[in-house]
Amino acid sequence: MLEDWLGPLRAAVFIVDDDAAWQRSMRKTLRELGVRRVYAVDSREDVEDLLASFDSCVVLTDLRLGNDALGGLSIVDMAHRLGMPAAIIAGSRPTRLEHLRAVSFLSKMEVNSDSIRTLLRRLEQRLAGSARVLE
User: Fold this and answer.
1) Domain boundaries in the chain?
2) So what's the pLDDT on residue 45?
3) What is the full DSSP assignment across 46-73?
4) What's phi and psi for 115, nearest 5 deg?
5) Which of 4, 73, 82, 101 is deepest in the core (most CB within 10 A)?
6) In the structure, what pLDDT confidence band is assigned to residue 96 with cuts at 50, 70 and 90?
C-alpha cells in the first residue's frame, strides 16, 4: 500500500475567510506547524467543488463571510456532507453558538500555534483512514 511506504497521507487544510491579512497570518502559522498543504478561499462560491476534489482535508472557516453573519455555518455543513471535519475561527465567540458541541470553535483572539495545533489534532481524529495534517 502506497501510504505504508510513504507514511501517513497528508491532509490539506482549507482556510475560508474573506480577510486577506488573516489568511496570510493563518498560512504562516500553519507552515510553522509543518502543515504542507494549505489552501485559502475567500468566499463560499466554489468551495464545495474545491473540497470535493480532495480525498482528505480539514476546513477552518470564519463565521462571518461577507455580509452573511453566519456564512461559515454553511461551509461547515458543506464540509460535513463531504465527510470533512471543519471548525469555525471567528472574531468573537457568539453566545448563541456556545451550546453547539458538533462544531469546534476558536476565537481569533485565542489563536496561536498551540491553540491551532490542538484544534488540528482534534479535527484529525475525524479524518478518514490514517490521513494526518500535522507530522
Assistant:
1) 10-124
2) 77
3) THHHHHHT-SSEEEEE-S-BTTBTTHHH
4) -70, -35
5) 73
6) low
